Amino acid sequence: MGLNGFFHFISQPPMGEEAAKFMMGLASSGYFFPFLKTFETISGALLLAGIYVPLALVILSRKKQIKKGKKEKNLRKLKIK
């Protein structure tokens, strides 16, 4: 996912209206997405090179935990309704 932020070779699925507004807000800052994608790319390179592997795994796994938490929250909302 890291290099896709720079070269856009994988198309992104369509987003909902609220998600699109949020993403546009982050993109309007001008520095958030380049910083994020650089961080992801460096973490992946460290992992592949075998340098600072525990640090790279913590960085990459933290990102997955955040996404997982959002998915679980959305699932709870659907079950309530």
Euclidean distance between termini CA atoms: 33 Å
Mean pLDDT: 76
Shape: extended
Tell me the number of strands: 0
Largest sheet: none
Give the class from helix and strand content and strand pairing: mainly alpha
Helix content: over 70%
How much of the polypeptide forms β-strand, as a percent range? under 5%
Oligomeric state, counting identical vs distinct chains: single chain
The topology string of helices and strands comes to HHHH
Total number of domains: 1
Question: In terms of per-residue confidence, which ranges show pLDDT below 50 for 5 or more consecutive residues?
Answer: none
C-alpha Rg, in Å? 15 Å
Query: Number of helix segments?
Result: 4
General description of the model:
This protein is mainly α. It contains four helices and no strands. The chain is 77% helix and 0% strand. It has one domain (1-9, 31-81). The chain has helices spanning 4-7, 17-28, 32-49, 53-80.
What key attributes describe this structure?
81 residues; mainly alpha
Short recap of the structure:
With 81 residues, this protein is an all-alpha fold. It has 4 helices and no strands.
What's the structural blueprint in terms of helices and strands?
Blueprint: H1 4-7, H2 17-28, H3 32-49, H4 53-80
Helix pairs in contact: 3-4
